[in-house]
Amino acid sequence: MKTKITTIAFDADDTLWVNEPYFQQAEKQFCHLLEDYLPQHTISQELFKTEMNNLHLYGYGIKGFVLCMIETASRISNQTLTLEFADNIIAIGHELLQKPIELLPGVEKTLEQLKGKYNLIVATKGDLLDQERKLKNSGLENYFHHIEIMSDKKPGDYQKLLKHLDCRPEHFLMLGNSIKSDILPILELGGFGGHIPYHVTWTHEQHEPKLQHDRFLELKSIDHIIHYLK
Ligand SMILES: [Mg+2]
């Protein structure tokens, strides 16, 4: 890379550790609870609709997800469900909030190699307390100079982060699994983006057309970034 990258930011969920498979498991459990009402596929669609309607109010994370499951269950059942049913949904949320942290392959090795050479940052969406828990349990906390738990990942949100870090976009590289949230906003600001694909992507984060950009890197896995930085 011909530029001087000084700061590397990492997305967390499905970039540093497993996340989306846990949400998909939870969604399956939720659909199972409601299987007398509608087919699984339709319940999933209804839940997604509720999530999109509430995104501007709840933001990203498990707490908002639980409220959306309760709202969806109420709607699907024509408000006939009991509070006991809501308890079952809350239990799904509690389970999600206590999932173990499973680091993705190559993460620790890569951070170890970058440590001391770059300012390493975590830039993630999600519930504040939950992301703090995951970071603490990941054992990765000491690699990072700064942790930013963001309510959204729009260009304006990254602009605030760059200002806070006192970093110019051309010195900034963002790595993550979501083209939409981790790459496009940073390219728009003049920074670098590296995509690390993960095998499952939440519908909301999906991006179809193949991206072509001179500040964009398509990486096979997280450790491939080392070759580009040489
Ligand atoms: Mg992610």
Automatic annotation (TrEMBL):
GO terms for molecular function: hydrolase activity. Keywords: Hydrolase. InterPro entries: HAD-like_sf, HAD_sf, PGP-like_dom2, S-2-haloacid_dehalogenase. It comes from the Bacteria. It holds the Pfam family Hydrolase. Gene3D superfamilies: HAD superfamily/HAD-like (3.40.50.1000), Putative phosphatase, domain 2 (1.10.150.240). This is Haloacid dehalogenase. It comes from Empedobacter brevis NBRC 14943 = ATCC 43319.
